Structures are given as structure tokens and as C-alpha cells.
Amino acid sequence: MPARTSSDTVTDQAEKDRRIAELEAENLRLRRIRDALIVRVESGTSHKPEPYAAFEHSVILAEQVRERTDALNRAREEAETTRQRLIDAIESIADGFVLFDDERRLIQSNSRFRSYWRHAGVPAPESGTTIDEVKRLATRSGLVREEYGREDAEGAVFLLSNDRWVQMTERPTREGGLVVLYTDITDVKNSEMARRIKALEESERWIRVVTDHVPALIAYVGADMTVQFCNKVYEAWYARGGEPPLGKRLDQIHAPDFYHRLLPQILEVMEGHNVTFELEETGEQGEQRYMLRSYVPNFDEFGSIIGFFVLIRDITDRRKTALALEQAYDNLERRVKERTAALTGLNNQLRQEITERAAVEARLRDAKLDAERANLSKTKFLAAVSHDLLQPLNAARLFTSALLEQSFGPKAEGLVRSVSTSLDDVENLLGTLVDISKLDAGVIKPDVTAFDLRDLLNNIAREFRQVALAEGLTLSFVPCSAVVESDSQLLARILRNFLTNAIRYTPSGRILLGCRRQAGHVLLQVWDTGPGIPTDKLSEIFQEFKRIHSEGCRMDKGLGLGLAIVDKISGMLGHEVIVSSEEGKGSVFSVRVPMGRLRPKVLPAGSATIPLLDEGLGGARVWVIDNDRAICEGMKTLLEGWGCEVTVAVSLADLERQLDTAGQPVDLILADYHLDNDVNGVDVVAEINRRRATAAPVLMITANYTNELKQHIRTLGYLLMNKPVKPLKLRSVLTHLVLKQRS
């Protein structure tokens, strides 16, 4: 059965006391009834029963009274037994025991609790004393010397006047009273203290082991200037007459004059500052040593300085080395002066020669600078005038394309095609010159992204298959879907130059476009069956205006800049270009491109592959904005030939004079980026769409190839085409935009 606690015993005793009180009250009531009946029997005159009946009734009542009295006596004996057992149980408890009622007044305590007061020479609290009075009396009488309370502990801990530790534990009773136990934990505290002392001693031992083996003097000085700790090195150096410095004041350890030299630094560290300084010091045996001293203040939890740490390092050897170096330096300086004096004459002789050479070098630098300026001026000029050079070429192409849409008869059509072919040649030559100039001037910047090679290679193969067929060659193509990290337009330019050279220098046979996968890279290759390149010429083919003429090859109007452009672009992208050739069999041109990983992105403006559509422009309403009247007229003629309704203007004001830009319907706005008076097409189109309820699709046309502009156009969601405009590509783009607008 479970053990009964002291609180349960107290509850049982209270219940028995209550039961005894009820039985005594009932016995008293029965006695009164008995006495009343006896009086009534003895004094009654009317209806008086027979004497025997009265006697019998009295006997019955007496028996009942006796039974009740016996029961009461037994209950009282049981209560007394229980009370004694409770007292014995309380006395048997090894802890101090105190019982308070619901008003927190003392009811019962055991001898252990009273012995605490007896040892202190103070009478124990009597019954009826409140718990607060007990606490005040314990503190005031000196019974409790110290009190500790922690949130994580079960109760408060007291140090008594007899050096015993007790822990107080409080437990409420069911009637609202309070049981307080005082447990002696002196042995536990002593054991814990012993463990702490042992740990501190072990820690101190390790600290001393470490500090004793450090090749420096270590000490701790208290606020009273007494050395409270020092290692063996400190003790060996400052032991005067065999007496250790531990426990002595600094003015007792050091000589008076040396202590006065230390005093300013001691005062400074006692003000809370770290101090490091050097002093020469004489040992007990008279040896001179240079010491580097460091004083570090020690603060208590209140921020007050209670001492400082001392670290002293012997730097005698270092100082001697420094002095030796200083002497060596002085000797070296003297020797240098002597040598300098000896060489002065020779220097004077050489100075004239140096002056003459400096003059020659200055003239060479000036000549080189003039050449670089001239070359830079040339490249900047070509890059800057590219827009003006391409404007009339773009207009001429638009007009010839419009003429090709008409029917003038075979002879006239032949002439128009001849003009178109000549314009193609001019465009290729001019485009090549402009490209090489822009590359030299640093205008073109790569836009490196991850993309799939499939569309790029398919478009290039489709473009050059017809060119090769016209030259009597066969172009084979091996598709590839690898993802690479590069600039798609610049990479396409490299491959186009490879294919152009292959077609140009291959009189007959076939050309192959494909790729090989390597570890982390893709090798894009163009193979041809041309005459090949001599080994000693492989390093020359990438030079500007350098052409290798092979027997049997077709002569064209190229400038020899195609591979020079490839070299500049590949260097800009960091792609390796590899050439291998065998005379009489052919050549292989390769570019190594790193593989990449596709990331979700918006398709670049103008770079998406748009299907070629032959219809869908009929009735399309197009607004053309270009500051060149010739281009406006050429674009209008070309677009009207495709069935479009065209309105042309050289500025926004010109367009507003012709129609209502806010309310009139439009399927497409075709705008040039560079307009007059420092106005650009992006701002003009933005102003038009700002006025409209629904923004119109936009196609920007420009001769500016910079990445900044391309990114800006892409961010706005517009399509972008570069000049000179290819009519076939223009038609496919317009068809795509118009059909998308109408759907």
C-alpha cells in the first residue's frame, strides 16, 4: 500500500476530532432527555404509569446512556491513539517539521525544528505564531545567517547559526493549511563545495603549468600593489635574497629608482588603460636585460579596477640584433657613400648617353602615340558614321525590294536583280568594315546567355544551303540541341564567317556544319573540301586584309577581314578558335564554346525565330517614323506592295498632323531609333502608347549594335532589327506581329 504522508495523517486526525465533538454533543443531548424523563416520572400526577413501568423505562434509558458513553470513550481513546501516532510520526521525521493552519498560524512542530532554535539559544516559536513572525524571529535572532533562493531550486536554502545548511520545502494541505519541511543538506553542500574546490585547484594547477612553461614573466598585481600571482620565470627573476615576490608590494620588489620609473605606467593602467613599454633592467647578478612590459587592467562586475595583469618579455637578443643591424647599416651607409663617390664620375659619363637615349625614346613614343591616335580616330570615325553610311544603303535596298515586287518584264527584272546584287556586295563590304571598326573601338559588347543551339544552327544551315547550292556545292548539316553559354548573335557571326570562307575557297565538293560534344564544351565545326591552307600560312589568315589565294578558287570582292573579325569576336567571348588543314584535301574551322544551363527568360527582342509567312499583311495599318525621307518613301512603297495601309512621318509632330495618334486604329508602329534633334524612337513610341487605351506593337529599327540598347529594347517588350533591313526578314516579322495583334 502507498506510504501515508504527514499531511494525510493531519487530515485524519482533524476528521476524528470532528467526530468526537459530534458524539459528545449527542451524549449531552441524551443525558438531558434522560433527566427530563426521570423528573417527569417522579413528579407527574395525572396519567402516571405504574411504578414498575417507570422503573423499566428508566433502566432502558440508563442502558442507552451507558452504551453511548462507552462509544464516546472508545472514540476518545482512538482519537488519542491517532494523535499520539501523529506526534510519533512527526517526531520520527528526520527533517524539521512545522504545521500551519489556513490562517498561517503555527499548530504543530517536531523536536528537530525546535532543536534549530535551541542551538541558537533562542526559544522556539509557540503555537499560534504566524509564519511571517517566525521568519522575522529567525532572522532577527541570528538563527538564519544567510538565505539563498533560485528559480530552478525546489525551495529556499538557509545557512543556520550552527553552520548547517537546510532547504525549506512548502506543501499546502487540503484544508488550506501549510506543511513546511526543513531538510538538512549540509553533506550535499559540503560535497558540492569539495568538488568545486577540487575543480578550482585542478584549474589553478593547469594555469600554473601553462604559465610556468611560457618563456615570459607573468604576474597579477592587486589594487593594493601586492603580487597575488606569478609564474616561475617571474619568481626566478625577482626573487631577492632567495625570497619569492609573491605576496609582496611592487615597491618592495623593485629598487626605489626603478619603481619610480614604473610608477607613471602603473598609474595609467589603474586608470583603465592598456600600457606597453620598454625598459632596461638590471638583474640580481648585475646582468643588463631589455624588457618589454604590458599592463592590462582587470575590472570587476561593477566596472571598478581591482588590479592588473603583467606580461614581461625579454627582448635583449632582439635589441642586440637591432643594434648590430644599426651598426651594419652605418657601415654599409659609409661604404655606399664611398662607392657612390667613386661611381659619380661614371654616372656623369652615362648621364649624357641616357639623355640622348631618352630623347630618342621620346620621339619614338610620340610617333607611336600619333599612330595610335590615327588608328583610333579611324576606328572611331568608322564606328560613328556607320549609321549615316547605312541610311542611304537601307533606303536603296527598300526601293529595290519594292521594285522586285512589281512586274516590269524579264529585262527590267534582271536589271533590278543586278542592282540588288550590287547592293548586297556593297552592304557586305561596308558591314565588314563597320564591324571591324566597332570591334576595334570597343563599341560591341557581348551579351552572354544560355541558349539552345538547335534554332541557331538550323537558321544558319537554311541560310547557307541556298548560297552553297548557287555555287554548285552541297552543304550538309548535322543538327545539335546542346545548350551553350555565349552571345548567340556573335557566335552566329563566327559560324557565318566560317561558312562564307568555306564556300568562297571551295571550288567543288561539299561543306559540313556540325558539332562535337566534349567535357564541359561543344566544338562547333565547319568542314570543307577546298584546296587547304599551307601550314606556314595558318598564322596569317587571321590578320586584317590578309587573303590566301589558292589555285582554282573563285575570286570575289572580299577584304580579307572575315577571319580577323572571327579572331576579335572569339577573343571577346573567350572562345578558342582551332584551325586544321591539309593541302589538297580541305580545312576544318572550329570554335570551342562552354556548355550552359537554360534559365527561364523572355525571348530577346528580334532574336526569336519567326516563321516566314507569305500572307496576313493585307489591310494592315502601319505607321512608319524615320527622319530620313528617302527611307520613309522606300518603306512606304515596299509595305504598300505587301497590301499594307502606310502612314509615314519624320517626327511625332509630323505624324500628329496627319492623324489622331490617340484614337485612330493601328496594327504596328515601325520606328527608327535615331531621330532628329536628339529625339529617339523609343521616347516617341512611348508617348504615342501613353495616349492610347491599348498599346500598339512596336518594331524598332537601328544601326546601333550596342548591348545597352538591345537590353533596353528587350525590357520594353519591343522587337528590334538592325540596319540594313532584310526585306524578307522584315516581312516575316511584320506578318507575325500583325497576326498576333489580330488574334
UniProtKB/TrEMBL annotation:
Residues 11-92, 315-370 form a coiled coil. It holds the Pfam family Response_reg. Keywords: Coiled coil, Kinase, Phosphoprotein, Transferase. This is histidine kinase. Residues 384-597 form the Histidine kinase domain. It catalyses: ATP + protein L-histidine = ADP + protein N-phospho-L-histidine. It comes from Marinobacter koreensis. The modification 4-aspartylphosphate is found at D672. PROSITE patterns: HIS_KIN, PAC, RESPONSE_REGULATORY. Residues 273-327 form the PAC domain.
